[in-house]
Amino acid sequence: MTYCILTIALDTPLNSCFDYRWQCAAGAEPLAGQLALVSFGRREVVGLIVAVGTQTDVPAEKLKDALAVRGQLSPLSPAWLALATFAAEYYQRPLGEVALPGLPKNLRVLTTVALDRALKKLAKGTAAAAGDDTAVGTPVLNEAQQLAADAIGGADGFTPILLFGVTGSGKTEVYLQACAQVLARDARAQILILVPEINLTPQLEGNIRARFPGLMLATLHSSLSEGERMLHWLAAHQGQARIILGTRLSILASLPHLRLIVIDEEHDPSYKQQEGLRYSARDLAVWRARQLAIPIVLGSATPSLESWHHAGSGRYRKLELRERAVKDAVLPRVKLLDMEKDRPKDGLTSHLVAALRQRMERGEQSLLFLNRRGYAPVICCEACGWISECTRCTAHMVLHKPEHRLRCHHCSLELRIPRNCPTCGNVDLQPLGRGTQRVEEGLQQLFPEARILRIDADSTRKKGSAQAAFDSVHRGEVDILIGTQMVAKGHDFKKLTLVGILNPDTALFSHDYRASERLFAQLMQVAGRAGRAARNEGGSVSEVLVQTRYASHPLYAAVVKHDYERFAGGLLDERKGAALPPFVYQALLRAEARELAGAIEFLAQARDCLAADGITVHDPIPMTMTRVHNVDRAQLLVESPSRPALQAFLKEWLALLREMKSRVKWSLEVDPLDI
Ligand SMILES: Nc1ncnc2c1ncn2[C@@H]1O[C@H](COP(=O)(O)OP(=O)(O)OP(=O)(O)O)[C@@H](O)[C@H]1O
Ligand SMILES: [Zn+2]
């Protein structure tokens, strides 16, 4: 028997690695990458062994023994440990806070019952993850698709590829055929495919299962049960799952034979985690591909300006699909409907109503896009001017009519709709503005015979309900679909020939410099849902109608022309001139306190505690939505034209901030998206 010292990362703030002693036979020492159970304070927790040695600075009387090593689980690879370490350093978080939450919960519990059960199930090969469908025919790729699939499938070494393909150009088919090439070449190859939204997994999962019957597919997203997550994670970790399909969290999956990464809709903001470890799954994916020297495909009809910039400078290889894949399918005709001239009634201009009626008569589907859920964003008293404000947030209480509730979308406060005005007693309270529920109500009156379906976060709360809703659209059981951004991306609605876009103007005048990039992408994506199938004999081109008060705005002119390239070029010039990302690198320090002054004071101290060449530390400002759930929030921006310089500064700065031991709660975000 001998002793070794295990350095173990635990999910705790600040220093997250601790030394423990472990007694074992010589030569049978645990390995880095294995999990171990240890006591920490008064608790017992599972940690990750990051190093195994013989020495420690911990005095002998304080050194504790580890309680157990999870020997039945093969170690996480050095490459995976390197990924977690990189993410921890880049996003300035302790390793344990990155590595452990990335593992299934059932691996981090005190007993190994769930782990043993999952291992047994996988050993028998009876895991639910194994596909058994029969193969369906592979469509013949068009020339551009074939070039792209071959370039991806045949790429050797680290090759970042931007697949710039218009909506409906058949990017999915390119991914699938490139996957087939990679899988055929290497009998162990694993491929990771990321989609931005959980609702897009079933469509792609179906395509993958049909194309690769018998191949084990693992899915990783937030709506799996813990048992499923464990099984799928293990299938990936043990190399059995060959294709892993997931949302952003799957970027931290353990994939010992990873040979290709695909990021679909790479521009999508949901690849950025918005709490805790605020990582960008897309950026980590590129890092992971470089580390493993494998190709990575970033696919989009509206690439992020970061990726577009890299493609322009030659860092990424650009592949283009300029036409729609289905023969005779063409991009829809986009028209602007001037709401100053054609005044909307119940939110709809007469032109849009006529177009909806025409589709109904032809038996075609329509989609109305409005990125605002609820009935009305606010209710007000016309007598005294009272409006429904949240008592805990700088926000309005949104009217949800079917549920008879006022709801704050930021702190979840719920109230019954008041019968009369809380300040003057007036009984005539009016909804102001329009959300999806109100548009739905208006449509039902306008088209009593139509089958109308609303898809938004409220209508799809129950597990499985979103999928059921999308399925009924695909089956043609819906005439008019109304929805938020949930319906805007990725879906291949074959019978849809009209898209109406309601009220996109608010985003034109946002203070956020990324707002126009996001709005443009959103409009192009939702417009891209129309006209994806071949037109009937003599059928007309599908249409996108945008209701706006600013019909001469250049952003809309670019949407009308489907001209991403020109629009993106213009934005990049602007960003360069104004020294904004991707030409500078940013980090955002946020602080929260009961009183705004406390948060600002902390940030001012932070601003003054360190200076460095080439680093600009701006003044603290309140966040646009200052108060959420009774907490005031402020932020401070740090910028540098050099990423390494910014990284070095942040490391030193954070050490100083931690020493301040302020009572103010603070957090740092690297490469923030919302400023
Ligand atoms: N070579 C092909 N021949 C015929 N049909 C094709 C071909 N390739 C793809 N398709 C069909 O074209 C349609 C659109 O493809 P897909 O959904 O992959 O587009 P996409 O590029 O991902 O679009 P979006 O960016 O809008 O998500 C699908 O119905 C698909 O089956
Ligand atoms: Zn609130």
Automatic annotation (TrEMBL):
One of its GO terms (biological process) is double-strand break repair. Residues 152-321 form the Helicase ATP-binding domain. Zn(2+) 2 binds at C390, C393, C408, C411. Binds 2 zinc ions per subunit. Zn(2+) 1 binds at C381, C384, C421, C424. This is Replication restart protein PriA. Belongs to the helicase family. PriA subfamily. It comes from the Bacteria. PROSITE patterns: HELICASE_ATP_BIND_1 (PS51192). The keyword Cell wall biogenesis/degradation does not apply. It catalyses: Couples ATP hydrolysis with the unwinding of duplex DNA by translocating in the 3'-5' direction; ATP + H2O = ADP + phosphate + H(+). Keywords: ATP-binding, DNA replication, DNA-binding, Helicase, Hydrolase, Isomerase, Metal-binding, Nucleotide-binding, Primosome, Zinc. GO terms for cellular component: primosome complex. GO terms for molecular function: 3'-5' DNA helicase activity; ATP binding; ATP hydrolysis activity; DNA binding; zinc ion binding. Its cofactor is Zn(2+). It comes from Massilia eurypsychrophila. Its EC number is 5.6.2.4. InterPro entries: DEAD/DEAH_box_helicase_dom, Helicase_ATP-bd, Helicase_C-like, P-loop_NTPase, PriA, PriA_3primeBD, PriA_3primeBD_sf, PriA_C. Component of the replication restart primosome. CDD domains: DEXHc_priA (cd17929), SF2_C_priA (cd18804). Initiates the restart of stalled replication forks, which reloads the replicative helicase on sites other than the origin of replication. Recognizes and binds to abandoned replication forks and remodels them to uncover a helicase loading site. Promotes assembly of the primosome at these replication forks.
